[in-house]
Each structure stands twice: as C-alpha cells, then as structure tokens.
Amino acid sequence: MNINCSSVSFRGDLVYKDRYIPSKQDITHDVIRAHFEEKLGPYFYYIDQIAKEKQTMHLKPQKKNTDDYWKKPGYTQKENNYKVDFSKLQKLGLPALRERRQNELYSGFQLRCTPEELDSVKKAGIKSVFGLVPYYEKDAVEKSGLVYKDLATVSSTPLSVFDINGDLIQNLIKHPEIYANGNSDGKTDSLKMFVKTLNGDNPDVPLPIYFGCHNGTDRTFLWYHLYTILKDEDMDKPLSQEKVRELAEFASDLDDYFRW
What is the pTM of this model? Predict the structure, then answer.
C-alpha cells in the first residue's frame, strides 16, 4: 500500500486528508486508518471516533444498504420472504449497527445477551446470531430461541478472528486451487462455510443473521470485506485470477494495518 505522507507536518496541528491527528505519536496509526477510510468507505471508523470527529468527517455514506457498495453491475439480490424491522434494532442503541443486506444480514456490537435485548432482537426479525469472536453467553442466545454459531463452531476446523491476518488468505493467493480442493488444516473449508453462512446457504444458521466482533467495527469490517470478495465465487473451482488479485491487494492493506 502506497501512502503519501508528504502533506503531513509536525509543526503545530497534524492533518492528513482532512483528518486531525492529535500528536506525533499517533501519526502512523492515524495515517493508515485515514487511508483505509478513504479507500474502503466511512464504516471503518470506530464508533467513538465518529462521535468525536463528526464535525470534521467528510466521508458520508451514499446508500442506506451498505451491501450496495460492493455490488457488481447486473447483480440481483435473491428474493426472500424475510422481514426485519430495522427500526426496532436501531431503538436498541446497538453500537456500529449496519444493515448489510436488507432483511437478511446485519452487523454490529456484540449483543449484551440480556433476556430483554435478545427478545427484542428476535421480535425485530433476527433468527441467528453469528459471532466473529465467541459469545461467552451463547447459552442465553440459544435459550432465547435464536440460533448461535461463531467462527470456531461454524465448521469442524475452528477459525479465529485473527486468522484474517495469517496464512488463511496467503494460502489462497499462492494456491488458488485449494478453494476448490480444501487444504490439509481444513481452514479453507471453514472459510467457505463462513461465506455460505453469510450468503444464507448454511441450513444450520438461518437468515436473517446478526453478526459481529466485540465492537462491531474494525474486525467486523475486515471479515465482511473478505466475504464480499468471495461471496459470488464458485466453491467447486479454483479462485479466479481477478479474486486472487483482490485478495493480494487486501492482504497488502492488512499487513500495513496490523503493523502498528
């Protein structure tokens, strides 16, 4: 990733791409974050940063349904009979709440798992909760009548939220054929099950789904971006050259992001 820092000065206030940087110590972190915000959209902000910087934030979402950001020309969403009352979810005050695919897929802050909140989530139309990190109160989720799965339990080989910056993507870049054939450690098959789950093709995790990490921000955004790269790929064939290029670019950005 090529970031031009020539416009950054350490004299007085620090500003990069209209973003105020409070101190010299924060320059690496914030310049990388500013690059991600410019490249991937405004949803990469932390919720507390949105509150603090809402007066100076120039990037604005253009569409209510954030999945539109990734749609290809000619994409047609599958018809469904699901109905989610998004306004009811909004009334819960869930931080980082996003409607990723209308009536099907939603992301945000890890649920507090109180009986009242879970009942409200269920009444809003959600049927499944998918954790990018394990919900330690998963029993409460299941007791409420919602289905629960996470990266560690979606397939026979557990995934970790941190696998996104490990061999998982690098193996696909170097050996795109394993997307069709799997690999010895089973993680590629688990990744495909993750994609199937968010696509609504996992019968054990029915739509509509609410998913996220602890804060519903950084790692939720990264895993969702990985999903958008792979969601339309034929899982019985090696990854296309186009997808390998997209994964390579994404991996390069991840290296820069996790460096600080």
Answer: 0.71
